[in-house]
Design brief:
Double Stranded RNA Binding Domain, 4-stranded mixed beta sheet, about 160 residues, alpha/beta, Arc Repressor Mutant, subunit A
């Protein structure tokens, strides 16, 4: 079905998977392993994804430039597209994403779509927060979500101080 490879990053060991067309999964090893049907093999696409993730964790990359091919329903894909539009260092509420996805009363459905996001970080579900600003629901754990948001805020703060 595809290839997957484990990489050590500053955050955790992650498994990145691809199907020959685009990335299909990005999981922390603690929460997943090589997906069934995938061969453990490094490909140029997986190596590039790992390189871009390293740049992101170092604060040098704000946007990923990778082909994506996540499996999901049409609604989930619509939500994931909206997540990719959230600028680096910013957050949106579940309600805001629901409205942008054309389902204004679908905040809970957005939460479920976030939960099913197979390519965390690259599809930035960590940038979605509760209506009251609380950090809720992230497959990698709330502590990882907080770390990612703080990384993005810190990088923007450092950039502003240099400008």
């Amino acid at each position: 079905m595809g290839n997957a490879y484990k990489y050590k990053t500053k955050l955790a060991t992650i498994v990145i998977s691809e199907n020959g067309t685009g990335l299909t999964h990005l999981d922390m090893v603690a929460y997943g392993d090589i997906p069934k049907g995938y061969e453990e093999k490094e490909t140029p696409l997986l190596a590039e994804a790992a390189k871009q993730l390293d740049e992101y964790f170092m604060g040098k990359r704000k946007q990923f430039d990778l082909p994506l091919d996540p499996s999901g329903t049409s609604f989930q894909k619509k939500v994931w597209e909206q997540l990719c539009l959230i600028p680096y260092g910013e957050t949106r509420t579940y309600k805001q994403i629901a409205e942008a996805a054309g389902c204004p009363k679908g905040a809970r459905a957005v939460g479920m779509a976030n939960n099913r996001n197979p390519i965390m970080i690259v599809i930035p579900c960590h940038r979605v927060i509760g209506a009251n600003g609380s950090l809720v629901g992230f497959g990698g754990g709330i502590d990882v979500k907080e770390t990612l948001l703080n990384l993005e805020k810190q990088t923007d703060t450092i950039k502003m101080m240099r400008d």
